[in-house]
């Protein structure tokens, strides 16, 4: 977290806030050659949206189950339970515990909720109860984000604060349970020898990236809505601190409960811990059953889990929606007509792609895609993302960008992590992950995936991994250079305007730009995004952009009309301080004999005008 998590979070917030775009548009502006890294983050977010919603579906199922007269995981008398079902009350009946005994909560999740099959090769049929819950989950997601950041931000005020209140209540109760100290000893006593295993580092990196939202594109997307002068260092430290404290609190709550279960089952903590989503749905229901007014606390717990799942799902889907808007603004406006229709299409497609997770063999597919999409691919993506920004675009440039926004350059600690520490650590972890690679398993290694399932997992992983090299080849081939180095240099050149004299994006040399084309400096915000950077866009002539919150000089942007005028042999006297209304008619009209053809006009528009999702047209 210290070497990768905090520095990468700070970097992504800086990139998103400065460019005002999603991951594809932002990385494409800074380093076109690695624009595929932004595309890869969108692919990973889409893959995650298809199976992460299943956790929400499980939570909905348990939430409604909590309203039954008795909780079905309290006793062993239900039809789905086996003879080896075990509860502590059987000790009073002089019943000996079986070595293969299982708790009612385990049996309820496996045999009632999942109706689990023998393996991924036995798909069988859809679990229609879970399909209905999955549909309900996507219904909630759609109506929470259909108005973009306006609607989802309001929902988060509730879904992000309520869980903290409930976590504290559950934490206090869990610490009073018998055997809680046993779980605490396991949680806080380190096993230093495990640091020599690559999988421990891989899991640590994956957990850091998942909990902090790094490399998924969500932080870049959300930061693009910020005011231009927003203090991203405060945001970085706040998110990192809250994330660490929350992880600690939930860890204490979880292992105190696990210690209690291990004591009741007369077994070790290791035997109680489950992999995958089983930790939530095996362990916590048993703890809820011990609370006074158990049904109420169970309903509150799974409502809390529902809120937490929706929070993450909002961010994941927002990345996909924002990136599609950035990439295909004209098609969306023509075919889908409005933002709400685009969100609906994304939700429907993700719902359909998530149906394999709610079959009888769905939990095996869930574990497979989670392993390959969220662990292996995410580190590969994070490595190339930091290379694109810190190495190719340059740590000096990104530091100047941060200073232009906040008035304060990043510290030496951040620069060192961006350039050396984080890339080396991520690269080393990823390489050792491949060297010590082991095929995924389920149920503590009892089930091993067949070869075709492992191949399928790597194919799923390659959907995001191949985005970076394939898109780099495409960008390289588009360049007009005559030599390899010329094409490489052009493909790595940033699209952001820099003053030729001082190298600044914001400078006091507006008169020296006359007669020269001025690249669009920043992507502009739309009406849904907060207006704070003072950048405006005029489709026909130069417009004066008001000063930034840092009292920098006005920004001049390049538009279709001015590019055509600047392409003439006669230089045009351009002033950034003269309002468009004061221009003469002769300055606004293009001579007929020099009029460009329609195709060139469309190409210029594509280069100049930001997408409808991220632009504010004046």
From TrEMBL:
List, as start-end ranges, the regions of compositional bias called Basic and acidic residues: 585-595
* UniProt membrane topology term: Multi-pass membrane protein
One GO cellular-component annotation of the UniProt record comes to: plasma membrane
Q: List the disulfide bonds.
A: 76-85
Q: Which one GO biological process term can you cite for this protein?
A: amino acid import across plasma membrane
Query: Predominant location of this chain?
Result: membrane
- What's this protein's family per the entry? Belongs to the sodium:neurotransmitter symporter (SNF) (TC 2.A.22) family.
Protein name from the UniProt record: Transporter
Give the source species.
Answer: Photinus pyralis (Common eastern firefly)
């Amino acid at each position: 977290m210290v070497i990768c998590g905090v520095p990468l979070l700070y970097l992504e917030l800086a990139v998103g806030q400065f460019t005002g775009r999603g991951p594809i548009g932002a990385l494409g502006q800074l380093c076109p050659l690695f624009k595929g890294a932004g595309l890869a983050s969108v692919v990973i977010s889409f893959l995650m949206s298809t199976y992460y919603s299943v956790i929400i579906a499980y939570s909905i199922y348990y939430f409604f189950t909590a309203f039954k007269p008795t909780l079905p995981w309290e006793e062993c008398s239900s039809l789905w339970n086996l003879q080896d079902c075990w509860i502590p009350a059987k000790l009073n009946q002089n019943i000996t515990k079986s070595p293969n005994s299982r708790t009612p909560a385990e049996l309820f999740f496996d045999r009632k909720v999942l109706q689990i099959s023998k393996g991924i090769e036995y798909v069988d049929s859809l679990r229609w109860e879970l399909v209905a819950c999955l549909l309900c989950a996507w219904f909630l997601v759609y109506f929470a984000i259909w108005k973009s950041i306006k609607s989802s931000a309001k929902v988060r005020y509730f879904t992000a604060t309520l869980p903290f209140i409930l976590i504290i209540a559950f934490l206090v109760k869990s610490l009073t349970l018998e055997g809680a100290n046993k779980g605490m000893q396991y949680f806080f006593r380190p096993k230093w020898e495990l640091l020599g295993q690559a999988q421990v580092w891989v899991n640590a990196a994956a957990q850091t990236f998942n909990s902090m939202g790094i490399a998924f594109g969500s932080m870049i997307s959300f930061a693009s809505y910020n005011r231009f002068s927003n203090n991203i260092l405060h945001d970085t430290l706040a998110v990192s601190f809250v994330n660490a404290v929350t992880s600690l609190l939930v860890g204490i709550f979880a292992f105190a409960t696990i210690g209690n279960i291990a004591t009741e089952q007369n077994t070790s903590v290791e035997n109680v811990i489950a992999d995958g989503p089983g930790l939530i749905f095996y362990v916590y229901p048993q703890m809820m059953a011990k609370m006074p007014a158990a049904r109420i606390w169970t309903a509150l717990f799974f409502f809390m889990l529902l809120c937490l799942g929706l929070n993450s799902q909002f961010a994941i889907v927002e990345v996909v929606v924002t990136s599609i808007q950035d990439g295909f603004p004209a098609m969306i406006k023509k075919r889908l007509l409005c933002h709400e229709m685009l969100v609906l299409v994304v939700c429907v497609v993700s719902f359909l792609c998530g149906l394999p997770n709610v079959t009888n063999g769905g939990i095996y597919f869930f574990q497979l895609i989670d392993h390959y999409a969220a662990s292996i691919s995410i580190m590969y993506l994070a490595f190339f993302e930091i290379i694109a920004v810190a190495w190719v675009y340059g740590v000096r440039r990104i530091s100047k960008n941060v200073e232009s926004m906040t008035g304060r350059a990043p510290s030496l600690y951040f620069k060192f992590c961006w350039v050396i520490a984080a890339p080396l650590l991520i690269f080393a972890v990823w390489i050792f992950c491949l060297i010590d690679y082991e095929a995924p398993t389920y149920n503590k290694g009892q089930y091993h995936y067949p070869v075709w399932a492992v191949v399928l997992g790597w194919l799923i992983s390659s959907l995001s991994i191949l985005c970076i090299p394939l898109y780099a080849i495409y960008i390289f081939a588009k360049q007009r250079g005559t030599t390899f180095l010329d094409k490489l240099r052009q493909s790595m050149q940033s699209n952001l305007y820099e003053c030729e004299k001082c190298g600044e994006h914001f400078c006091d040399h507006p008169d020296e730009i006359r007669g020269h084309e001025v690249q669009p400096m920043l992507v502009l915000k739309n009406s849904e995004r907060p207006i704070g950077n003072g950048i405006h866009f005029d489709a026909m002539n130069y417009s004066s952009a008001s000063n930034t919150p840092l009292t920098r000089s006005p920004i001049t942007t390049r538009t279709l009309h001015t590019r055509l005028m600047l392409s003439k042999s006669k230089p045009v006297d351009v002033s950034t301080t003269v309002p468009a209304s004061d221009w003469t008619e002769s300055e606004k009209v293009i001579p007929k004999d020099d009029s460009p053809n329609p195709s060139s006009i469309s190409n210029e528009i594509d280069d100049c005008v930001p997408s409808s999702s991220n632009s504010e047209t004046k």
